[in-house]
Design goal:
Blueprint lengths: L2 E2 L7 E2 L144 H21 L4 H19 L9 H18 L1 H20 L6 H26 L5 H26 L3 E3 L3 E5 H23 L3 H29 L15 H21 L5
Helix pairs in contact: 2-3, 2-5, 3-4, 3-5, 4-5, 5-6, 5-9, 6-7, 6-8, 6-9, 7-8, 8-9
Length: about 425
């Protein structure tokens, strides 16, 4: 079967086509056909009979029309190149750019700092390990302008953590004592942010939770618990889970179990446990004081644990969950919360000091368990902090972890120790 020649005439041609070269649409008169232009009657994939002449020297590679031949020194044949592609040794050194010797000869003053190389830092800085970049602030003291403040032994920026902690305390206590019903807005905003942080964190485990029904249900749970008590808190949790279930079914059954498991964890962990704070604050006449003694016990537990662990911590408490927690720190947490609660409950509620100490020990243990629980969640998810919303603290959930476990414990104990007056 014959075909039309696209570069020749209109006549049909086959394998017995005449011995004439094909006319290219872009003729190059100076183009050398080279050694691969074999006999047109030869087999298409046959080995070329003409061999390419080997390059006799490295200088032959530089005979190009575009190469700056006046600035390149010719290299004798047999001299190897430094790199595979770029002949770096072919350029003459620029005057005045000679490398400085590391050790100047005697009697000669060193001309400033030497340049940093791949394995050599600048003069005046210690040598860094392989793969470690030398810090540009090593020649400045800690806390000076241009160099960040040294972190504390707990791995946090302590001044920022103290400032943010005081600000959070003011946001909580001022509405609580100025106008107690406004504290409900603080709880709703805090738990809404906590649900948002948790929903972002569980995405590391490829779980996508319905954010809208969780936030709406969480705010509803806290609100009806404020006005309806413990039964309303349980009802709010059921409504939140039902709304989340229906919302999630609209996205199909793919990964349904994983998403609903994460959504249930968030609904129980944040708005349900946090709803006990609404139960404490809504107590007639002394709701603000109940919140106060609970928060003071949690703060004393955290402060005592930090002080004892940083100075005396030697025996890890849960190395696989939270390596920085020690049994000495736990003892400091329990001791500080027990002493402070014994004094505070005796002054505010006329409760015997030993019962106040029991209250402090229970709240401290619950706070430590809450801290360990969130540490375990973050370790499973592979995150250090829930977010970077609060400088020195991480996310809001990193501050609420102890409180979320402490408020149910405080509520149950205060119901027994300080019955509410209806």
């Amino acid at each position: 079967m014959s075909h039309l020649d696209p570069y020749g005439g209109a006549e049909a041609r086959g394998w017995d086509r005449p011995d004439q070269p094909a006319h290219l649409p872009w003729p190059e008169p100076n183009l050398d056909p080279g050694p691969w232009s074999a006999d047109p009657h030869a087999e298409r994939y046959a080995t070329p009979t003409t061999q390419v002449e080997p390059v006799r020297g490295a200088a032959d590679l530089l005979d190009h029309d575009d190469a700056p031949t006046g600035q390149i020194e010719r290299i004798p044949a047999g001299v190897g190149l430094d790199h595979d592609d770029a002949p770096t040794a072919q350029f003459a050194p620029v005057p005045g750019d000679e490398p400085e010797p590391d050790d100047p000869p005697p009697g000669r003053r060193h001309r400033g700092r030497r340049r940093a190389g791949a394995g050599r830092p600048t003069s005046g800085q210690p040598a860094s390990s392989p793969g470690e970049q030398p810090s540009p602030h090593l020649d400045r003291p800690a806390g000076s302008p241009g160099r960040p403040a040294a972190p504390s032994r707990a791995g946090r920026n302590l001044p920022a953590a103290i400032s943010v902690g005081l600000g959070l305390g003011a946001v909580v206590l001022l509405p609580l004592f100025l106008y107690t019903p406004s504290f409900l807005l603080v709880l709703a905003a805090a738990f809404g942010v906590g649900i948002w942080e948790m929903s972002r964190a569980v995405r590391r485990a490829r779980a996508v939770v319905p954010l809208v029904p969780l936030i709406v249900g969480g705010v509803l749970t806290v609100t009806i618990a404020w006005f309806g008590g413990l039964d309303a808190l349980l009802l709010g949790l059921l409504v939140t889970l039902a709304g989340t279930l229906v919302w999630r079914l609209g996205d199909g059954m793919a990964n349904f179990r994983r998403d609903m498991t994460a959504a249930t964890l968030i609904a129980v962990y944040v708005p349900f446990l946090g709803g006990f704070a609404a139960l404490l604050a809504s107590s007639p006449d002394d709701g603000a004081l109940r919140i106060l003694v609970t928060l003071v016990a949690v703060v004393l537990s955290d402060t005592g644990g930090y002080a004892a662990g940083a100075n005396f911590g030697k025996h890890p408490m849960a190395p696989t969950i939270s390596p920085k927690k020690s049994w000495e720190g736990f003892a400091g947490s329990v001791g500080a919360a027990a002493l402070g609660s014994a004094l505070l409950l005796w002054l505010l509620f006329d409760v015997a000091p030993w019962w106040g100490a029991v209250f402090g020990v229970a709240v401290s243990c619950a706070a430590v368990l809450g801290d360990l629980a969130e540490s375990m969640i973050k370790r499973d998810l592979g995150v250090k902090d829930m977010s970077n919303l609060l400088p020195g603290h991480g996310g809001l959930m990193d501050r609420l972890d102890s409180v979320l476990f402490a408020v149910p414990t405080a509520y149950l104990l205060l119901v027994v120790l300080v019955p509410a007056v209806n």
